[in-house]
Amino acid sequence: MCLSVPGKVMDIHADGLRTATVSFGGITKDVSLVLVPEADVGDYVIVHVGFAISKLDEEAARRTLELMAQLERGGNGSEGQEGPRPL
Amino acid sequence: MKYVDEFRDRTLATTIAERIARTVRRPWMIMEVCGGQTHAIVRFGLDALLPPSLTVVHGPGCPVCVTPIGLIDQALHLASLPRVIFCSFGDMLRVPGSRGDLFSVKAAGGDVRIVYSPLDAVTLARDNPDREVVCFAVGFETTAPAWAMAVIHAKELKLTNFSLLVAHVLVPPAMEAILSSSQNRVQGFLAAGHVCTVVGYEDYEALAARYRVPIVVTGFEPLDILEGIALLVSQLEEGRIEVENQYVRSVRREGNQQAKSVVDEVFEVVPRIWRGIGEIARSGLRLRTAYGDWDATVRFHHDLAQVGHGSEEESECQSGLVLQGLMKPTDCPAFATRCTTENPLGAPMVSSEGACAAYYRYRNHVRPEGVMRVSSFLR
Amino acid sequence: MSNHESIELTCPVPVVEQKTVQLAHGGGGRLMQELIRDVFLRAFDNPALASLHDGATLPIEKGTLAFTTDSYVVHPLFFPGGDIGSLAVHGTINDLAMCGANPLCLSAGFVLEEGLNMETLRRVVESMAKAARAAGVPIVTGDTKVVDRGKGDGIFINTAGVGLVPSGVRVLPELVMPGDAILLSGDLGSHGVAVLSVREGVAFNGNVESDSAPLHRVVADLLDSGVEVHCLRDLTRGGLASALNEIAVAAKTGMVIDESIIPVHETVRGACELLGLDPLYVANEGRFVAMVPESHVEAALTVMRQHVVASRAVRIGAVTVENPPLVVLQTLLGTHRILDLLSGEQLPRIC
């Protein structure tokens, strides 16, 4: 469920839904940023059915890719990820 | 495409697969709960990259599949009313009710329209003041904020011709239902990354502790899923029971506060019947009384009184077992014989994210022979 | 001579005409004659049509005739890069080309809905005329009917075409054999995405233009070049996956293709990701696949790439003896799965 795609915020219109033009590989669609008030022009957002549901953390993305490239992981294998929270 | 292509990199996929292979020492059964993840696994053939002792089963992560037949019948009835413009996401159009589906209602003259966004439906209502716009609000926690915003927006626009037929379902109760079943053999979960983007994963910590199962919040690209699996099997092999977040670029532990608050404003939690599984407590959403004006079950109460509660499923359809991960689609006797995407016996064969449809579409039941030689044909 | 497109002269005398199509325009009387004269003849102007007979007669040499027909019901009528008219011309020319034939001429049958804007009809007909002229394939005969308001979607067009297959040319799925290479003439999905971009409910903005184009010239060059062409198929509804499956079934062979080689334009990808569509199943209207012996691949690609319409031609896979009649896809990750026929219509996947 939840087909969501990352897109880049190109500009933000001044309306009640914080509608923005978001680019997905060159095609653009109007997306509401009302659920992600911290998103700004130039940011990447994850978009689901016309709404941004999160601002994509580009630094975290970079870290994730770096971790994926490691064959061996030190410790419990998840430094750089969030958590884990022992239960 | 940025932030998509990097997570489909072949070299990295091989690296992670190798890591998984080195980590797995014992057989494990893990479940992914999201139709989008099922889709990615079959589309990219990820199961071929996993060691045979690792079994991945698919859970009830397809809201289209689990929408109760009674609600579908209500949708079909409303869609057939001449004054109604019935809006739905594409996937719902072919899900069978007791008699027919939205496609057949459309063919008979019903005004059924596919929308991409709930806001499109609000625009339709604004532009067609003489018609009633009714929307099938289907989806997990990921989609609820969008429908909540649509209602809030419709209220701001003072629209009196816009309403929702709410079919939202919630994931953690379903996971709990699976875990608490005596037949459960699932030992770890990949949690749905976009659901958690909205609601966070605090709720999962209690689940993990109570049932002693590790949970990894996972994204949807092939590398995300492989990495999620790698983290999960590490926990299993090491005997750890934690909630980890693989999808850090989108998910925070507390989720999206803004999204959660609009959902809470508009919806309340109720029990819901999951098609093929039965009723699960506190697993659905309904519009609050304060938003009754935008609730199709209130607005069309009179019309809907005639609609029954939905007849029993085709007895051959084993969707309940499939949705709970107790049976693989390929194990169902009707799979690909009496039940195909052209003639589905149940919802998981209809929705593109239903496990049965995914297996059938990508012909998972047919393994190409001589696959190793295939590469020699390609340069 | 100048390099400009030839100047098109039209009669400057203003014509008094109806603003919308009436039932009487299909009735066989004066109004219909006016419609034929002022809209169709004016646009399609050619000697065969000018004789205004019930049918066109054309002298041909002895040989093998190719004959095909197709109907066009696309909605909306106009989309970036084309319209129902240009589509109707290109589509039928392409079907002839896929048989190995040189297209000779086309017929055009119109079913118009009462109330259709006359200006809309003119635009479509002008577009057909332009496409036919550019392709060098005249529209020599036609028909018009008008149906009651509500009984048609504006315009439906049927085009039939005849062509001549040069002697010695045989292009059929039966000739496809294991070991043949599979060539694809260009990038996928532009047509389907272009139409979706203007369709209500899923519209978006982007510079995606339909790839609708005539393929007869590149095919003729290919056949002329000495390359042994076993089979040709243009990709239409159902995309690459459908075309390959149809051929595999007819030829009783298997196929294998490499997803990482298949060209898809970035904006088309973006649209497909957004809507949850698979480019391998999205409609094209100016792309084809060709099956040729492995040893002829370089020569074939060289010929194809000389044409704008096939400048990104590439070898995507091979015909195999294993797994008939399945088409196996090697995914981006190097794993394998079956590329099946589409079941029903590919709906935008949202949830």
Summarize the structure.
Chain A has 87 residues and is mainly β. Helix content of chain A is 13%, strand content 40%. Chain C starts with 29 loop residues before the first helix and ends in a 13-residue tail after the last strand.
Layout of strands and helices, then pairs:
The complex is a heterotrimer of chains A (87), B (379) and C (351).
Chain A: E1 5-12, E2 19-24, E3 27-32, E4 44-48, E5 51-55, H1 58-68, E6 82-86
Chain B: H1 10-23, E1 28-32, H2 35-43, E2 54-58, H3 63-66, H4 69-79, E3 84-88, H5 102-107, E4 111-114, H6 118-127, E5 132-137, H7 144-156, E6 162-166, H8 171-180, E7 188-192, H9 193-199, H10 202-211, E8 215-218, H11 222-238, E9 242-245, H12 257-266, E10 267-274, E11 278-287, H13 296-299, H14 301-304, H15 319-323, H16 355-361, H17 371-374
Parallel strand pairs in B: 1-2, 1-7, 3-4, 3-5, 5-6, 7-8, 8-9
Antiparallel strand pairs in B: 10-11
Helix pairs in contact in B: 1-11, 6-7, 7-12, 8-10
Chain C: H1 30-44, H2 47-50, E1 64-72, E2 78-79, E3 82-83, H3 84-98, E4 102-113, H4 118-135, E5 139-147, E6 155-165, E7 181-184, H5 190-196, H6 216-224, E8 231-234, H7 239-251, E9 254-258, H8 266-275, E10 288-292, H9 297-305, E11 314-320, E12 327-330, E13 336-338
Parallel strand pairs in C: 4-5, 9-12
Antiparallel strand pairs in C: 1-6, 2-3, 4-6, 7-10, 7-11, 8-10, 9-11, 12-13
Helix pairs in contact in C: 1-4, 3-4, 3-6
Number of strands of chain A: 6
Low-confidence spans of chain A: pLDDT under 50, at least 5 residues?
75-80
Specify which chain pair forms the largest interface. Answer: A-B, 50 and 66 residues
Give the radius of gyration of chain A.
16 Å
Strand order across the biggest sheet of chain B? 2-1-7-8-9
Q: Percent of residues of chain A in beta strands?
A: 35-45%
User: Number of helical segments of chain B?
Assistant: 17
Q: Termini separation of chain A (Å)?
A: 28 Å
Give the strand content of chain B: 15-25%
Given the structure, what is the number of helices of chain A?
1
General shape of chain B:
globular
Radius of gyration of CA atoms of chain B, rounded to a whole number: 21 Å
Low-pLDDT parts of chain B are 370-375
| Major pleated sheet of chain B | 5 strands, parallel
Structural class of chain B: alpha/beta
Helix/strand-derived category of chain A reads mainly beta
Biggest sheet strand line-up of chain A: 3-2-1-4-5
- Give the helices and strands of chain A as they follow along the chain: EEEEEHE
